Amino acid sequence: MGAFPQTIYFTGANAPVGEEYELTGLPVEGDLPAEVRGSFFRAVPDPAFPPKFDNDHTLSGDGMISRVRFNGDGTADFAVRFVETARYRAEKAAGRALFGKYRNPFTDEAEVQGVDRTVANTTPVWHAGRLLMAKEDGRPYRVDPVTLDTIGSYDFGGALKSETMTAHVRIDAQTGELFFYGYEADGCASTKVAYCIVGPDGELKREQWFDAPYCAMMHDFTISENYALFPIYPTTAELDRLKAGGEHWHHEPELDSWLGVMPRYGDVREIRWFKGPKGCHSYHMMNAWEDEAGLLHFDACLNNTNAFAFIREPSGIHMAPQDVKGALTRWSVDPKAEGGEVTETIIGPPGDFPVIPARLQGRRYQTGFLLSMNPALQGPPLFAGPVGVSFNMLLRLDGMDTPTPQVTQALPLPPMAGYNEPVHVPANDPAHEGWLVCIVDQQAGDTFTHEAWVIDAGRIGAGPVARVKIPARLRPQVHGWWVPQAQIKEGVQA
Q1: What are the φ/ψ torsions at residue 83 (nearest 5 degrees)?
Q2: CA distance 335 to 348
Q3: Which residues have a Cβ under 8 Å from the Cβ of 404 and sit 6 or more positions away?
């Protein structure tokens, strides 16, 4: 087995770990809120073998399902396991990498042509008693939430026709329905998008296909109470480029962005397209909501280009990370219009990994949380994750249902420390704003430490109310999901 490339994607905080283990009875410092007793699942890319190509990157890593379980006795357990995808099993049997470039099957070894190549490494999704590990280039894998054993590729009992399912689903807390989509639904560089609705019973109720304006990286989308919204940004794929052994994605600065809007229970023939700025890109949306006048507002962490250097540079875009400009941005449209252009408003600072309480998904909301960079940091940041730098400040924004939201609280970290994406945990008391749970990484020399933090969502500036030191080496996560213990028991028994 060869060595991993000595690039930012495989060194330092991003150095592969590739170990499965379980730690039990970890002590909790501080007061662990009763509501947090459950499981915090995390999706962690971690390559089992060095890649075939030296220019590979973080997002190609094999999926690992990581869990912090907060116990009733006030302790915590930690476990991590590989998601045993078809790709992982094939490479494990061979003892080496067999799959080639990121999302380019034409660069795979002949012996694995036609094998499901997703790594299921982006988001753990919990719905209807099932835990799924999702990545947008394929169908998800179902995982046992207690043992973390891989059950297998999941297609909703054969009902799902799309070859892909997004890693960013949206769940309406009031109806219990799960909304998702799959882009490149019938193969590489396709413009086909499958829009799907799953009932609270876990059954796929509806799947409709439509054509996007072009084949775009559609990493996230949103719903409102009455609409589904599909953002299209000019990070594009071309089949000829893939067949020639090129990169899946190139970013096109001169291409328009679009926002597709349709009634969320309607027919895809009702979709209307609203034109946005050229060359912009967003990976994550905070929410979408409708105001009293019927206008539809779409709040996203928008940048002036693609945030990933491994996409920009093959596209001929060479710029330092600090030159990527962004902001929390609102696009507003009249959903009853035949189309037109979005109205764009800057409503917050640059950042990513936005979080809101799950009960407000698709509804008017007042508060949101965001990871950002501390402009007053007195020292170097933590170099980690697919962008190369870890966020080091947690922000709370209030007035999200107004034209001018404000940052009202912040929790900065010291130099060489970074946040992983937090999740929101609701409180039993409706007057309490709940809790944020996240992993915080810290580097000192060549040593890395990791802690799970529980933060009062109403007082984030006060720091964690409880913390758990994890005595093992962790790799940065992508996304996470929190599940109360009672729901896990119900899911296992179902």
Answers
A1: -80, 115
A2: 24
A3: 347
Residue 105, phi then psi, degrees to nearest 5 = -65, -15
In the block, residue with structure tokens 């072009």: 214
DSSP 52: S
Report residue 492's pLDDT band, with 50, 70 and 90 as the boundaries. low
d(CA 15, CA 11): 4
* pTM of model > 0.85: yes
Structure tokens at 250: 């190139």
How far is residue 470's CA from residue 467's CA, in Å, rounded to a whole number? 10
Q: Please, which residues have CB within 8 angstroms of residue 112's CB and are 6 or more apart in sequence? A: 87, 90, 98, 99
The single-letter DSSP state of residue 35 is: G
Residues 66, 2, 315, 300, Cα dihedral to 10°: 10
The answer for residues whose C-beta is within 8 angstroms of residue 248's C-beta and 6 or more apart is 101, 102, 103, 104, 188, 237, 242
> 165: how many CB neighbours lie within 10 A of its CB?
28
pLDDT tens string 188-210: 999 999 999 999 999 999 999 99
Beta bridge partners of 447: 444
- Exposure of 317 by Cβ count < 10 A (0-12 exposed, 13-18 middle, 19+ buried)? middle
CB within 8 Å of 38: residues ≥ 6 apart: 69, 70, 425, 482, 483, 484, 485, 486, 487, 488
Question: Is the pLDDT reported for residue 1 higher than 60?
Answer: no
Report the alpha-carbon distance of residue 444 to residue 380 in Å, rounded.
11
Nearest to 180 by CA among 264, 300, 91, 276: 264
Residue with tokens 């912040």: 410
Q: Where are the alpha helices (DSSP H) in 274-324?
A: 309-312
pLDDT of residue 457: 98
Q: Using the 8-state DSSP alphabet, how is residue 216 labeled?
A: B
Under 8 Å between Cβ of 166 and 177 = no
